[in-house]
Amino acid sequence: MRFAALLTASVLAVDPTGWDRYGPLRFALISAIGFLAIAISYGAGDQRPQPLPRWAVLGWTILVASMTISTILATDRWTALIGTPERHFGLITWLLLAGLFAASSMYPNSIVGPIRRAAMWSTAIAGLWAILEKLDVGWFDSAFAGDRVGGPFGQPAFLGAAMVLLIPVCASRAFDPVAGRAARVLGGSSGLLGLVALGLSESRAAWVGFVLAVVILIVQRRQVVPGLVFAAFLAVVAIATPIGDRAATLADVDSGVVAGRLDEWQVGSRALTDTVTFGVTGHGPEGYRTVFGRHVDDQYVIDYGRDVITDRAHNGILDVALTGGFAASVGLLLLQLGLGVTAIQRMRADDTFDRALSVGVLAYGVQQLFLFPLAELDPILWIFAGLLIARRPRRTTYPPPLFREVSGSKRVIMAAAGILAAVAAIAGLSDVAADHAVKSALDATQADDALDHADAARQRRPDSIRYDFIAARIATEPGTPEAFINSLERLDEGLRLSPNDPAFLAERSSVLLELARRTSDTGDLARALEAFDALDVSDPRNPQVQSDYGIALALDGQLDAAIEKLNRAILLNPDAIEPLLNRAIIELEAGRLDEGRETLSILDALAPSNATVESLRREFLSE
Fold first, then answer.
1. Rounded CA separation 201/146 (Å)
2. What does DSSP assign to residue 250?
3. How confident is the model over 468-497, as pLDDT tens digits?
4. CA 20 to 30 Å from 71, out of 267, 447, 450, 452?
């Protein structure tokens, strides 16, 4: 039941009363239940029915060792250890995944029933959720670009990834010849609801993975009629629904998703070799976000913007290489190749569950080539992978183990996993409480009350930079010099934990600028300029930073340098109004009327009848 409980929590753990209803509770349960499952498995004295394949042992050894070394060498060790509050993919999560793979491989038969039931009910609920969300029904109403749905994950790509894992398990029950009628109906119904959720997610990576895996299954089993039926189903869906138009963008190499992924991989490839060891150790788990700004190019920023902090490379192998180094990516590649070969071989099995595991594992692995490892779903993947390995036909002889078991090692693993489960439970519950405090802060009508609630969140999870950042934002609301000083104190606390976090550094420079504007103090302005000087090196292609830097330089009387920075901001974000307005103000106030008139003309094209533009014309140009 412990593995089934983990699967259910991974898919359905949502906190309807929280601020981040899709995050803290889910991660708390995944971590606590996951480590508890490992501890129970190793403490029960159960024996693995057959040894793990050598490629699996070697792959996990390389991957975990590389991530451990990268964590130790990381400049942001704490975040590398526990992960960011949004992704949770630090070293601890890699240890959890390795443990779940090893633990689930002990039970080739006994956990199949609970896993199947949990998968069917979770898929059915996720499918119903997606339908209600698409219909904009009450609490389920969410807004995503392109009218996509995110289901119980709040992320369309995550919903698609979950469905490619779970739909095959549902189908295995629907087509199980020994299952009862009710079980087969539940399997078929949940599978169909999962297909609806997969379609509504509009996750092209998931579609590619799912279709490819099913096609390989059909070819492996030489089933012509099911193949024709599947092809007809895809044709009807493509013609009769908007899915066809979205899927067609996969063929457009010069624009759309393909071009976007290629551009992201180019940036990631440049960042990969930007380490002292030329990529051998990577930037540490969760470290890509701290170096992305140095390696992104102008065209990427112009095409895709910088509104979101880029922290993933949208390719599982490249993402792992960036965080753990080349060796870590080799370990993951070894695992994925071994699982892929095993999955294709087991598609020929008579047992429907074996075929389901094979399709799900293969489909998820393919879609991850266009996404990245997910702390929400990778635990399910590696439980399925462990089961798939355990359910291989038994051999009469085995090669000698890659590493011999050390006496007492199971007790050590049990104790370590038990401790981590307890810590995860305490930290997770504290995170849920902190999240509720944030909700109270955002709902508060008085600024002082809001800040008190935000600081209460920080006290509950002093190790999480999320709450320092939120409290810093709330602290600025009064708009007084004292408010910005309070904000800086909270930002500096976060930077002590994560000294290179790009969001904190950009926010700190912005707050310093606002403080300098309100105090007109040369010391405050000097601090702001110092912060912008540093950001100009670490994140030189952030249009908002360049725009704010230009304002700071103008306050310091460096008008030419200010206009240069504003021009950079305009180049990187051609549709933005703010840097153009600031450039016009600087030009007009400096008496550069012709230049100011030209800038106002550009603004006319971007923002017709803009009140500020008209005011500037009347004040400086008498028009």
1. 10
2. G
3. 999 999 999 999 999 999 999 999 999 999
4. 267
Residue 478's SS3 state is: coil
Token pair belonging to 565:
């920075």
- Residue 376: name the closest of 54, 81, 34 by CA: 34
pTM: 0.93
Tokens read off for 328: 């870590």
> Helix 502-519 to helix 522-538 angle, to the nearest 10 degrees?
160
Q: Is 215 exposed, middle or buried (0-12, 13-18, 19+ CB in 10 A)?
A: middle
Cα 530 from Cα 525, distance rounded (Å): 9
Give the whole-angstrom CA distance, residue 272 versus residue 325.
Answer: 8
Q: What is the pLDDT of residues 544-584, one digit of tens each?
A: 999 999 999 999 999 999 999 999 999 999 999 999 999 99
Give the C-alpha distances (Å, rounded to integers) separating 43 from 51, 98, 274, 408, 417.
18, 17, 43, 11, 10
Structure tokens at 246: 């979205």
- Number of neighbouring beta carbons within 10 Å of residue 341: 12
**Tokens coding 613:** 């533009």
What the chain holds in terms of domains, given with CATH numbers, is 48-403 (no CATH), 446-621 (1.25.40.10)
Give the C-alpha distances (Å, rounded to integers) separating 2 from 5, 41, 335, 503, 529.
5, 10, 24, 38, 54
